[in-house]
Amino acid sequence: MIDRAGLAEFLRRRRESLQPEDVGLPRGQRRRTTGLRREEVALLCHISTDYYSRLERERGPHPSEQMIASIAQGLHLSLDERDHLFRLAGHNPPTRGAISEHISPGLLRILDRLADTPAEVVTELGETLRQTPLGVALTGDLTRYTGPARSIGYRWFTDPACRALYHPDDHALHSRVFASGLRTVVTLRGPGSWAAHLQNLLLDRSEEFRAVWQEHEIGVRHDTVKRFVHPEIGELELTCQALLDPVQSHRLLVYTAVPGTESHEKLQLLSVIGAPDLMAAAPPGHHDC
Q: Which of 113, 158, 217, 260 has the greatest number of CB atoms lying within 10 Å of its CB?
């Protein structure tokens, strides 16, 4: 049973406790609102201002679980706050742990401050949950995938177009890294896990994956420097740093270039060019990675 009064009050309190800079939004001039405006929350939650406003006024339809999850993420709620919001809306809270897609407020606050840097939050299976604008400009929008294709490891072995963004000399290492990483997660999560399902799909669909999987490699990692091949500005050498959220098994990946190098200049150019139209250049049925 939905608690409309409790839901409305909780949303108002959380909205009023946040400032634009807390969620990566510009403050602007002549701001008089205490906390965020309703239209700003709606933007963060990917819903209409009218829909959100009705929730705060104890009106409107019963929000779905997907809608509540989007609001919880947009308001940068902690796991406890997220679970409380779900219960107020009359839903059981989602499962916590490895399969959770709720990004912690701490990681979000860091990500929000990296507007001039390619960065992304990924799951332990390489599913991109959120990217910075420059991250989208570098690799395309990786959050739009559904099903098994959400995992970069799955796309690597099943979609040839995925590899176009990475230097050909590094492809063999990428294959070993993705197979090794998946084996680690399968062992950790067990035979009934989503990781095990991806393993079975890849064994059935990729001859290369079967060959690499038979090597039983564990702990294979990428080099600190990754080489990307962008369709408009060419090759970039970027250093990848990772920040782990051990509770959610999420990683924040940040890509930087050494100042004064050609890659640094290209990264600055990329911030002006914006996201490439990778879909237009891909063969039918293939997508960017």
A: 158
Question: Which of 21, 53, 88 lies at the terminal end of a domain, its last residue?
Answer: 88
Angle at the Cα of 280 from the Cα atoms of 275 and 286, rounded to 5 degrees: 105
The CATH number linked to 24 is 1.10.260.40
pLDDT per residue over 109-163, tens digit each?
999 999 889 999 999 999 999 999 999 999 999 999 999 999 999 999 999 999 9
Prediction pTM value = 0.82
CB atoms within 10 A of CB 60: 14
Work out how many domains the chain is built from and give that number: 2
Cα–Cα distance for residue pair 69/46, rounded to 1 Å: 11
CB 58 within 8 A of CB 4: yes
* 35, 167: one domain: no
* Rounded Cα gap, residues 124 and 194, in angstroms: 11
Who contacts 202 (Cβ-Cβ below 8 Å, separation ≥6)?
153, 154, 157, 158, 182, 209, 210, 213
Distance (Å, whole) CA 164 – CA 49: 39
DSSP helix/strand/coil, 217: coil
The residue among 26, 55, 88 that closes a domain is 88
Alpha helices in the chain (DSSP H): 4-17, 38-45, 49-56, 65-74, 79-88, 105-112, 133-139, 152-158, 171-189, 194-205, 207-213, 262-273, 278-281
Residues 205-221: tens digit of each pLDDT: 999 999 999 999 999 99
- Report the interhelical angle of 4-17 vs 79-88 (nearest 10°): 150
Residue 288 has pLDDT above 60, yes or no: no
pLDDT value of residue 98: 66
- For residues 230 and 275, membership in a common domain is answered with yes
The Cβ of residue 204 has, within 10 Å, a number of other Cβ atoms equal to 9
Both tokens of 284, joined, read 């039918």
